[in-house]
Amino acid sequence: MSEKRFKRDTRLGHLGRDPARFDGAVNPPVYHASTVIAPDTATFKASGRRRFEKGETVYGRFGTPTHQMLEDALTELEGGADTVALGNGLQAISIALLTVVKAGDHVLLADSVYAPTRKFASQMLARLGVEVDYYDPLVDGPALDALIRDTTSAVVLESPGSSSFEIQDVPALAETAKARGVATIMDNTWATPLFFRPIEHGVDLSVQAATKYVVGHADAMLGAVTANHAWAHRLRETVYTIGGFAGPDDVYLGLRGLRTMGVRLERHQATAMTLATWLQERPEVAEVRYPALPEHPQHHLWRRDFDGASGLFSFVLAQPYSQDAVAAMLDHFDLFGLGASWGGFESLAIPSDPYRTATAWDAPGPVVRLHAGLEDPDDLIADLAAGFDRLTRAAG
Question: Is the pLDDT of residue 262 over 80?
Answer without folding.
Answer: yes
